[in-house]
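It is worth pausing here to work through a concrete case rather than discussing structure prediction in the abstract. The textbook approach is simple: state the sequence, then state the predicted structure, then interpret. We follow exactly that order.
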Amino acid sequence: MRIRPTPLAVLKKYWGFDAFRPLQEEIIQAAMKGDTLALLPTGGGKSICFQVPGMVLDGITIVVSPLVALMQDQVENLKQKGIPAYYLSGHQSFHEQDVILDNCIFGGTKFLYISPERLQQPLFQERLKQMNVGLLAIDEAHCISQWGHQFRPEYRQIAKIRELIPNTPCLAVTATATEKVVEDISIQLNLLRPTLFKQSFVRENLSYNVRKGANKFALLVEVLQPFKTFSTIVFVNTRAHAEEVARFLNHNHFSAGFYHAGLKAKDREKIQEDWIQNKFRTMVATNAFGMGIDKPDVRLVVHYDLPASPEAYFQEAGRAGRDGDRAYSVVLFDELDEKIQSDKLQQSFLELESIEVVYNKLCNHFQIALGDQPEQHFSLSLRNFCHSFRLQPVKTVVALKALHQMGVLVYDSETIRPDRIKAMAEPTHLYAFQLENSQWGWLAQALVRMDGNLFHGYSRIDLDKISNFTQQPKERILQGLFALHQLQLFDFQAGTDEPWIEFLTPRKTKLDVQPYLELKKWEETIWKQWTTFLGFCKEEDHCRTALLLQYFGENAPACGHCDVCRKKKQTESLSTGELKEAIWKDFTKQRIWGKSELLEKWNCSKNVLHAILEELLLEELIVELEEDAYERR
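Step two, the predicted structure:
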């Protein structure tokens, strides 16, 4: 009988830490005994909570994760520690998935990361019954709830999976969930008397701030200037904005790079690594950046564009100050942002008939007959598809995302698939080919020499490295890879940065109404989350930290270091006479002031400000204009 190591021994051996972070050990002990639900804010070490017990317990740990890129990163990290791990997603061929599942049953595998779409596949469900599963871990568990900010209907399949492994404990983890979402997670996962752990969302070292103004470029420079030599992140909502803002910053003598899902995989990896190594200081990025990134010394996170929910904001702002030192989050807010984001949300909702039009044209595009469900996934050129069927690109993307949310298909525009290859012939056959074939034998020899794992599974390949190794141009190498594929010596799968599609259900004449109605409910949630965050940005009287924590069901006193608290301190320290003098000084610098501007700047009561303005009027130092505005005489 195997003697189980202690969680601390596993932590030291594989992760090199001498102690757990707060709550981690308690969560691990609970997860090894029964159902557990854990809320740990961003940077709280959620993955340790299921990876360590996975190494302690007998059998395999299955981890459900919504992001293929995150699964790839975590599996790669585990393999580097000498821990056998795989991930299962729609990017892989049927044969490759078959081999991985066999390894999970017979090969001593400790971790299987799986996308929620795979849970529905008969191949996986049949093999699951044969596995010795020690733990089922649900990452980003808020995705199961319609009240969550990233609802994924395919997460609802997890409850059915639990019926196939009824004696296996379940650990659900998330970084951002309201009390309503926490309750819904427990219900939807059928957790049995779960032990609940909730780490306080208070980040005492993190200051939340909102800066208002119409010229965001000027505001950004002003905010970044004191942090020029520190690591910073600027979040934007579009790929075009990421490149535009990075160009502007470099032109203004800031060292900046940009990151978004449209970059090739190799470029994304390089820019991420350059930033981590401080080769440049400011990363301008969409929300595609940050998953699995743990750079503890980020001093400032700026939201140039507004996030759509308090959850998204809290998660992204939380990437600052993970080392415990003072850090800052700044939202740049312009009144125009409200209209831009509201219009964007409005455009992201379509009627069922419009979604069905795109669905049917998509099926026709890939030549899928009624009742058929292809096993493979497809690369989709949006430009060609929209041009062929005379569709509007923006509405087409909205429809594809809706079909994804309805569980009809998988639409993935974030994950870039790299070039991959696997040896199909036996080593002896390949050796003979190398000797006999003068045209491509050299390439087959180089592939085997560079990576002996080609006989055991698919490996990423780098054309630059092969070119350097063989002293042959990349164009000839690519030609040779396709030739070796045709000869059935290797299975070469060319990478793509285009979105990919996988159909989860057979083609129908009409889409089911019920998933669409659930989607409409979720849209209502999205609107509520947006209006809540909008209120957070507009707030001028209440502590921002307290407001944010209240949203997540936690009461907290005023933090003392957000912009609202700082203004209150500044105002409270002034007598009425000193405040009057300061306001008059404002008029000497700027001729016209609105009452709302003065209230925002000095954060005093309306009554106090009214009295001061009345005195200045009586002294004939200012005159009153229309709409609560005043001008210096």
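Step three, interpretation. The chain has a mean pLDDT of 88. The first helix runs from residue 7 to 15.
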